[in-house]
Amino acid sequence: MTESRDFWRNRRSFQRMEVETDLSFHRENEPSRRHSGWTRDLSADGVQFETEVTVVVGERLYISVTPADGRLPPLTGSLQVVRVDETSSGNIVVAGELTIDNG
Fold first, then answer.
1. Can you spell out the DSSP letters for 9-41?
2. pLDDT tens readout for residues 15-34
3. What CATH number labels 2-100?
4. Mean per-residue pLDDT for 86-99?
């Protein structure tokens, strides 16, 4: 797991990678209730993803991303939500500041 964490920490903060892969998350106050979504892009300090679940600016989410193609290592961490938008199809786009787990 250290190798995965080091990969993400060594990314420059302005590098954003367009990555579409499944993501799961839970709210800080609901650790047993998992939700799903899919990433739009990732960087070392941020994530943007789409979901069908309502999310509020200021919430802290705990996320897990395991790219299916193996192109990137798995990622877990907490996300401080800084922006929420709605798509024309009614899905929710969430963007936030990422803190990668130390484990």
1. HTS-TT--EE---EEEEEETT-TT--EEEEEEE
2. 667 778 899 999 988 999 99
3. 2.40.10.220
4. 95
Q: Say if CB 25 and CB 37 are below 8 A apart.
A: yes
pLDDT bucket at 38, cuts 50 / 70 / 90: very high
Parse the chain into domains and list their residue ranges. 2-100
Which tokens sit at 19?
A: 């990555």
Half-sphere exposure of 35 (CA within 13 A, CB side): 19
pLDDT the model gives residue 11: 47
**Among positive and negative, which fits the CA dihedral 77, 49, 44, 21?**
positive
Q: Name the amino acid, one letter, at 33.
A: R
